[in-house]
């Protein structure tokens, strides 16, 4: 089932919702129908567990370095 991420434009709450009919859901915090679907990064794995040092592990750890919003330093220790 597809799970989408949304943000409420009224109260700024972010939430996830299973949506089957393509409509935008109401905010669970305030009930507002003024919500926007967020662009989310797809995450999936195939195969078994990820082993440190494997190609799968390095692909996961090198993508999206700097997990802080707006961080361009490549390390969260450089964020404000």
What attributes does this structure have?
single chain; elongated; alpha+beta
Layout of strands and helices, then pairs:
Elements: E1 3-8, E2 14-18, E3 35-37, H1 55-62
Antiparallel strand pairs: 1-2, 1-3
Following the backbone from N to C, one meets helices and strands in this order, namely EEEH
Secondary structure: helix percent: 10-25%
The CA-CA distance between the termini, in Å, is 38 Å
Radius of gyration: 17 Å
Tell me about the largest β-sheet. Answer: 3 strands, antiparallel
Describe this structure in words.
With 80 residues, this protein is an alpha+beta fold. The protein has a domain at 4-38. Helix content is 10%, strand content 18%. It has one helix at 55-62; strands at residues 3-8, 14-18, 35-37. A three-stranded antiparallel beta sheet has the order 2-1-3, with no helix packed on it. A hairpin with a 5-residue loop joins strand 1 and strand 2 (14-18). The longest helix is centred in the C-terminal third of the chain and has 8 residues, at 55-62. The model is unreliable at 62-67 (pLDDT under 50).
């Amino acid at each position: 089932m597809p799970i989408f991420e949304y943000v409420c434009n009224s109260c700024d709450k972010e939430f996830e919702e299973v949506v089957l009919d393509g409509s935008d859901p109401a905010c669970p915090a305030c009930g507002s129908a003024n919500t926007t679907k967020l662009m989310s990064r797809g995450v999936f794995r195939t195969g078994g567990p990820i082993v440190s040092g494997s190609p799968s592990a390095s692909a996961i750890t090198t993508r999206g370095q700097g997990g802080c919003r707006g961080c361009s330093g490549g390390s969260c220790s450089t964020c404000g």
